[in-house]
Amino acid sequence: MFVGRRMKRDLVTVPPGATLEEAARLLKGNRIHHLPVVEGKRLLGIVTDTDLRNATLRGAAGDGEGAPRTVGEVMTRDVVTLGPDDTIDDAMLILSRQRFGALPVVDGERLVGIVAKADVLAAVLETLDIEGIGVRLEVILPRDMGEVTRLSATLRELPVEVRSLVLAPHGKDRYAAFVRVATIDVPGVRKLLRGKGFTVAELSDFYEPG
Amino acid sequence: MAADGTQGWGPGGPLPERDIADGFDRLIAANRLFGAELNPSVLKKSGKGAPFLVRKPPSRTRMLALWWDLFGHRVDPGELLSRLSVEVRGMAHGDGHLLFGRDRILYDCQILQGNEAVGHLTLDLYRERERIVRFLPFPTRPGHRVVYIEGISLTRQSTGYASALFRRYERLFHDLGFHLFRLKASLSVGKYYWAKEGFDCSDRKQFQEMRDRLWDLVWRLDLPVAEQEVRRLVHMADVAAFRPDIQIPVWRDREGYYTLERDDAHPEEVLFPLGKAFLLGSSPWDGHKVIYTDTPRRTALVWSEKYLSHGTPAGHPEGQKRLTALREAIRREGLLASLIVTEPYLPGMEAVHAIHDPAYLESFREAVARGDRYFATRDCAIGAGSYEAALLAAGGVMAGIDAVFSGRSDNAFCAVRPPGHHAGRAAAMGFCFVNNVAVGAAYARSAYGIARVCILDWDAHHGNGTQNLFEEDPDTLFVSIHEHPSFCYPGTGRRMDRGKGAGAGATLNVPLLPRAGNREMIDAFEREVVPAIEAFRPDLILLSAGFDAHRDDPIADLECTEEAYVHMTRRVLALADKCCSGRVVSVLEGGYRVDSFVASALAHIRTLQGREDMPCSSAGG
């Protein structure tokens, strides 16, 4: 999945000459934390609510002489950006490793969008169908595609709709299959799977350590 | 409402046998107590003569045994007699006496106005044994105490005397622990009068035939009445009050008997409102009225045989067995006589369309007609009767709401299926097709003009259908307490979902982690649910009462017992007393293990009745 599909395109931006107060109002009014700083469409930097707060604190601590007054003075110029053709995986890795809140998306020098952590989380929610009707089961399988095939064949025989199926590594030699099923009779499904020899985790395995 | 029991039946428990026996002696000496047996030759005729043959009183032991059986020694014979012959509207009882039969006591008297006898009254007090256990070797269960109104006749018409007298009697016999009035409504005015007084037809089939005849009449006279209006009549009182705006003629003979068709014997034409005219001209019927006995609140039970016609395949958790077992338990526990059994009706489609998309209902109807085995999703198994049963379930909630708003009952339990709280505007899921509580909420607004409705859903599964339907409505508070969506179907109902748009704040979700039991359930209920309802001040509380949070239930992972339901029911009643005159209409949702479901639902019903004698274990009887 590409960043171009997930990024926000209607952008709130600010010119470098804007005052800190103006920038703070924009952040607050739009309930966002990151403002790309642009000249025309060209991305110059990014300013966050933390940058603004730090600048204000510095100004209050000193005598006011030489304290920054414009966005251009406090913005980060060395911005990590993405292109529309980068993938959501890239975005997730950067956001997770560098602990950024949002990444501007540029086409050359031109700003075309922004991807925030929330947008990436929305993609994950959608993939796992967490907001849809259904319940997640966790099936532990040997690391063998034959078993995965057998699981999907078994699910096919059950009178339930599978909303999502995610296969994750579980230790060295096993998989954890997260199956989201749309039925009220989840204990019935669990029982059927166990009857076919599958290991289905108990509910408590999700929240009780050990 | 709590019976205030001010009639003087003291808290001291049963009277000593000596007092009762002395009472017998005094009455015998005063010629006011006799033995008696029924006189079959008079009973078969009507009117004249005494319906019994007077004999010497039976032995004191037998009289005491009978007295204990009927009154539990709450009253002595002299006091009973004086309370029965109370003066009402300037009319007194003369020559009142008690007659001891083999298994019953009769009260017989003249009705006097001044010194002139203007009428006659006979009451028959007995216990009704349960026929099913009668032939079994072990002791029979004590049956209902019944006041049979053998007859009341007045030569002077309608001073409102009978009505005033029976209101007194209802109170008196309530305090004496009697369960039912019975009578045969056979006199010319009796058929209308008793219906108006809240007597119901004892034989459901007879009532349905009467309803059919009413529809025939409407059709024959080409009256502006829809068939639906007739179909939804479920009580004689509704028939008596039916369409007073339409007057139709009936014909009267010289003795005051009416007929609906003119003939030579009935020359006089009179105009009456439709319902009244119909009843005046109809044939006799057997009537009964519940005297709200040892239950402080009057609870309606909505139930229909047709709820069993929603057939699901063997092994399906939402099976007919749930309701048949509940019905059997209600009968076995002797609750039936204290419940106001209410028949549901098929709702007009406009009432259902207020909640559901017509095209959705139509495709549901078609799926059933085609003989499909499920609708929309495999969970939603259907059979030939499913469409009608689903509509009748919504109509059951409407009938429960009618019972409460008309004052026939204080609250109601609607034992309906299929359940409803997962059903959305155009979505069937989780065994649900029509959202019964939602249809009820809309109906209560349109029919009774109330504004604020609270829907409390304590089924173990989140009521996603109900939430979706009302999440933008600030006048409907939806509160759901359920197993956490990360572990349990339908995977919705997170704490952060608090309503949308204008309805922000009018949705409250309280998820419980798996294995939560009574303590967690009750804590959360007290901490979050009670204050929310209190602050909202609803005009009506609807309960989505599922019983699948029980520890024995297979379809969820909570570990509650009946005690949690008893606690929550009590608190809901107290809240309703504060906000909305006690109006609570409870609607069955889930609960899938038959014994724990039945035990929980029974405990809930008993608590709705205001009883304090709650079971504490989950043993299913």
What this model shows, in words?
The complex is a heterodimer of chains A (210) and B (621). With 210 residues, chain A is of the alpha+beta class. Chain A folds into two domains: 3-124, CBS-domain, CATH 3.10.580; 129-205, 2-Layer Sandwich (Alpha-Beta Plaits), CATH 3.30.70.260. Chain A has helices at residues 3-6, 20-30, 49-61, 71-74, 88-98, 117-128, 145-157, 186-195; strands at residues 34-39, 42-48, 102-107, 110-116, 135-142, 161-170, 174-182, 199-200. Chain A has a four-stranded antiparallel beta sheet with strand order 6-7-5-8, covered by helices on one side. Chain A is elongated. Chain A starts with a helix and ends in a 10-residue tail after the last strand. In chain B, 35% of the residues lie in helices and 21% in strands. The A-B interface holds A 130-136, 159-161, 180, 182-188, 203-204, 206-207 and B 317, 377-379, 422, 429-431, 461, 464, 486-492, 513-515, 554-555, 557.
Descriptive key words:
heterodimer; A: 210 residues; alpha+beta; CBS-domain; Alpha-Beta Plaits; four-stranded antiparallel beta sheet; 8 strands; 26% strand; disordered C terminus; B: 621 residues; nine-stranded mixed beta sheet; eight-stranded parallel beta sheet; disordered N terminus
